[in-house]
Amino acid sequence: MGERRGMTVLSILLVLCSLVMLWKPVWVWNAVESWKSEDGAEPSDLYIWSVRFGGVMCFLAGCGGIVAGML
After folding, report:
1. What is the pLDDT, as a whole number, of residue 3?
2. Helix 25-32 vs helix 45-70: angle between axes, to the nearest 10 degrees?
3. Are 11 and 58 in contact (CB under 8 A)?
């Protein structure tokens, strides 16, 4: 039972992180990538698209983990 609960908690955290990636990709850029930029102004459109795509994949994985924890 403890392993299921742990997996469910991690899956919920993954879903929450994915929602941030989907709705606020600039926050992710500021936290992770902004120091690498020479001008530090803003992320590129490709970066925003890739973070949102990663957010969708993380959301699906998190939902799958939640469902697997319920079975």
Report:
1. 74
2. 100
3. no
d(CA 64, CA 70) in angstroms, rounded, equals: 10
**Rg of the chain's alpha carbons, rounded to an integer?**
15
User: Amino acid identity, residue 46?
Assistant: L
Q: Using the 8-state DSSP alphabet, how is residue 38 labeled?
A: S
Contact assessment for residue 65 and residue 14, using Cβ atoms and an 8 Å cutoff: yes
Q: pLDDT by residue for the chain (71 residues), tens digit each?
A: 567 788 889 999 999 999 999 999 999 999 988 888 777 688 889 999 999 999 999 999 999 999 998 88
Give me the amino acid identity at 3: E
Ramachandran bin of 42, using left for φ above 0, alpha for ψ from -120 to 50, beta for the remaining angles: beta
